[in-house]
Amino acid sequence: MFARLANGIVAPKRVIEGQATNLSRTMHGIAYDAIHDEIVIPVALSGAVLVFKADASGEVPPLRAIQGTRTRLVRPHTVAVDPVNNEILTADPSMRAIAVFDRMANGNVAAKRVISGPRTGLLDIVGLDVDPIRNVIVAASRKGNGEKVGLFVFDRLANGDVEPKQFIGGPNSKLAHFRQVTIDPGTGNIFLAQQNTRMKQMEAYVLDKPREGFTAKEKDDEDDDSDSGRLDQMGFIAVYGPDDNGDIPPRAIIKGPGIRLAGAAGVALNPRKNEIITVGGNGFQTFLLPDFFKPLKKLGGGTARP
Predict the structure, then answer these.
(1) Across the chain, how many H-helices and E-strands are there?
(2) 173 three-class SS
(3) How far apart are CA 93 and CA 78, in angstroms?
(4) Does residue 138 sit in helix, strand or coil?
(5) Which regions in the chain score pLDDT beneath 50?
C-alpha cells in the first residue's frame, strides 16, 4: 500500500507478505470495502478468495478465506465487494462463471448465486464490479476469436444461465485485450482498463481440459499480457455510460504516450477526491476526474459525446 499522494520512486507504507498470508504470485485483482475497511484478494493458484484488514502489515493471516470444493472455485481471477448488500463477488475464467458469496463467508462454503452457462456469453472473465445503487453487475469477458468480447451487464440478483441485460462490444467499441473494470457509484459510468488493441489469444485449458478449437499462437507473437507494442496498439482507459448497449464507441478515453500510460491493466476510482487510478507495465498513474465524466445520457438523448 502506498500513500495516496505518493509520486515517483517511493517505498510503500505497508506490505502484506509472507507464508502465513496465503498469498501467491497469481493475484490478478483486488477490491476495497470502504464501509468495513477490508481488502479482498483472489488467489488463482489456490482457488481462494482472501479477506484482510485494510491496515494489515507484514506476515498476517487473512481474516477470512473462501476456499474448498463447495465453493466450486477453480481459478478466481477478479473480485468485487458489495458492502450495501453484504456480498463478495468473484469471477472465475475456468468456471466461466461469476460466483456471489456472503460477505462474511469463511471456509468451504457454497455460493449464494452463480451466473454461468451458454446464454450468459461469459468465458475468460477478467474484470468485475457491482453497482448496488442501480442493481447491476458488470463483467469484462474475452474470447480468443473476437466473438462476444466486451462488457456484460447483468441484474444484480441474476442466477444461473441468464442472458445479460446489456452488452457492449464490437468493432466500434474498440474493446480487445482488456482487464479490470470499475463503476463510478455517483454516475454509474463504467471504466475499463484495456492493455492493448490486439485481440486476446485463446487459452488452451478450461477446468484442466484442453479447450475445443484451440490453436497455438505464432512464435513471433508477443506475450498476451504484455503492455508493450506499437503506438497504435497501446492500451487506454475507456469510459461508457450506464445505459450504453451494443457496438458503440467509448464516451471518452484516456490514452497516449504523453501521459506515460503504456497499457492499462487495472483501474480504480476515488470518488471523494475525483481521481482515476490506473496501473500498467510502467507503474501507477493518477488522473483527475474531469466534469465531462458526469452522468451520461443515452445516445440520442441530446448529450454530445466528449
Answers:
(1) 0, 21
(2) helix
(3) 9
(4) strand
(5) 202, 204-208, 214, 217-232, 300-306
Handedness of CA 262, 243, 129, 222 (dihedral sign): negative
Q: Checking phi first, is residue 38 left (phi over 0); if not, alpha (psi -120 to 50) or beta?
A: beta
CA distance 296 to 186: 11
- Retrieve residue 212's grid coordinates: 475445443
**Contact at 8 Å (CB) between 287 and 278?**
yes
Which tens digit of pLDDT belongs to each residue from 213-228? 545 544 434 444 444 4
Residue type, 221: D
pLDDT for 64: 95
Give the chain's domains with CATH numbers.
27-106 (2.40.10), 117-299 (no CATH)
Measured distance CA(100)–CA(133) in Å, rounded: 17
The full DSSP string for 8-54 is SS---S--B-SGGGT--S-----EEETTTTEEEEEETTTTEEEEEET
**φ, ψ of residue 142 in degrees (nearest 5):** -125, 150
pLDDT tens digits along 12-62 = 666 666 776 666 777 677 888 889 999 898 888 888 999 998 887 777 888
